[in-house]
């Protein structure tokens, strides 16, 4: 288990993390979303003990972790981070970079694990290539292979899929899911695009201005965002106003409710334009509602409004 208690951090006069507290249980897969500059990467580095905080504590399995100001070599073997710096040995080969992480194993086990992780990230054919000669995407994959070879209790990944094509992204996602199921590995992933985390994580944190403003399961955060800005972090969100009340909904939602009122949403495709027509009606008294103008709907996903009853 990993606990953050009242973490505060400033860079100069800028507040980066503001009284952040959270607990991540062993085996959880947690995603952190938010716009650029909100403190996501810094929070990940604090969790892995690679950034010194101004106040507060990081605790792993009841043991307080110490930061780089108190430790000659920052970090812990049980807590592996793959960030945008990659932290490779540039003049060592791909294979040597991974082998550094498994020297404690018997020789035969080293070879098996090296082959496994290099095959996963599709770097087997480059195993004798020097790391500094790799492309940015290949370096990212090598950094991930190094972290996976350590078989850590916690794995921290900063924008892990940004340089990957779709096929490789899905392959690594499936591997991470299997790793979690088999070894109970905890994972924390940072992304500015929450859609790529939806099928992987079982918990999402929304970080804004150094604070966690939402901590929820992906489905609830996806279908019930606090506001439009939060909703857009997880894909297309539409906003509509009915009799003074604003509703947020996804393109695939057909029924919206806040407990006091219900709106049924229906879609049909225009044969003339190929665009999606949105119609809606309110059902508490069984009365149909007409959209009076296109201004009542925030056009996010090429929707337009047809003035008619349903």
Which helices and strands occur, and which strands form pairs?
Layout: E1 2-11, E2 14-24, E3 29-33, H1 40-47, E4 55-60, E5 63-64, E6 79-82, H2 94-99, H3 107-120, H4 136-149, E7 154-158, H5 166-183, E8 186-191, E9 203-208, E10 211-216, H6 218-223, H7 228-232, E11 238-242, E12 245-249, E13 255-257, E14 262-269, E15 276-282, E16 297-298, E17 303-305
Parallel strand pairs: 3-8, 3-9, 6-7, 7-8, 15-17
Antiparallel strand pairs: 1-2, 1-4, 4-5, 9-10, 11-12, 11-16, 13-14, 14-15
Strand order of the largest sheet: 6-7-8-3-9-10
Mean of the pLDDT scores?
82
> How much β-strand is present in the residues?
25-35%
Quaternary state of the chains: single chain
Q: Determine the CATH superfamily of the largest domain.
A: P-loop containing nucleotide triphosphate hydrolases
CATH topology description of the largest domain: Rossmann fold
Rg, Cα atoms, Å = 23 Å
Overall geometry: globular
How far apart are the termini? Answer: 53 Å
Per DSSP, the total helix count is: 7
**Helix and strand pattern:** EEEHEEEHHHEHEEEHHEEEEEEE
Parts with pLDDT < 50 across at least 5 consecutive residues: 267-310
- Count of DSSP strands: 17
Class by SSE composition: alpha/beta
Using the 3D structure, state the CATH architecture of the largest domain.
3-Layer(aba) Sandwich
For the biggest sheet, the summary is:
6 strands, mixed
Q: Look at the structure and give the CATH class of the largest domain.
A: Alpha Beta
Tally of discrete structural domains:
2
């Amino acid at each position: 288990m990993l606990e953050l208690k009242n973490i505060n951090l400033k860079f100069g006069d800028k507040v980066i993390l503001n009284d952040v507290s959270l607990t991540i249980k062993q085996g959880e897969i947690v995603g952190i979303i938010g716009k650029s500059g909100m403190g996501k990467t810094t929070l990940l580095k604090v969790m892995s003990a690679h950034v010194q905080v101004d106040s507060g504590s990081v605790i792993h399995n009841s043991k307080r972790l110490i930061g780089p100001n108190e430790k000659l070599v920052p970090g812990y073997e049980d807590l592996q981070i793959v960030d945008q710096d990659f932290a490779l040995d540039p003049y060592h080969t791909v294979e040597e970079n991974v082998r550094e992480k498994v020297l404690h194993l018997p020789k035969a086990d080293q070879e098996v694990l090296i082959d496994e992780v290099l095959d996963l990230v599709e770097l087997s054919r480059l195993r004798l290539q020097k790391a500094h000669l790799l492309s940015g995407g290949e370096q990212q994959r090598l950094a991930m292979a190094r972290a996976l070879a350590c078989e850590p209790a916690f794995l921290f990944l900063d924008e892990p899929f940004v340089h990957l094509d779709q096929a490789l992204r899905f392959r690594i996602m499936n591997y991470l899911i299997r790793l979690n199921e088999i070894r109970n590995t905890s994972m924390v992933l940072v992304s500015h695009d929450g859609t790529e985390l939806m099928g992987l994580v079982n918990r999402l944190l929304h970080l804004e201005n150094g604070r966690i403003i939402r901590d929820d399961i992906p489905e609830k955060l996806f279908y019930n965002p606090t506001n439009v800005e939060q909703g857009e972090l997880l894909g297309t969100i539409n906003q509509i106003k009915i009799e003074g009340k604003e509703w947020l909904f996804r393109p695939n939602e057909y029924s919206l409710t806040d407990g006091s009122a219900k709106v049924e949403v229906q879609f049909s495709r225009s044969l003339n334009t190929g665009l999606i027509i949105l119609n809606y009606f309110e059902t508490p008294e069984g009365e149909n509602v007409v959209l009076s103008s296109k201004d009542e709907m925030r056009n996010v996903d090429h929707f337009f409004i047809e003035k008619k009853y349903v």
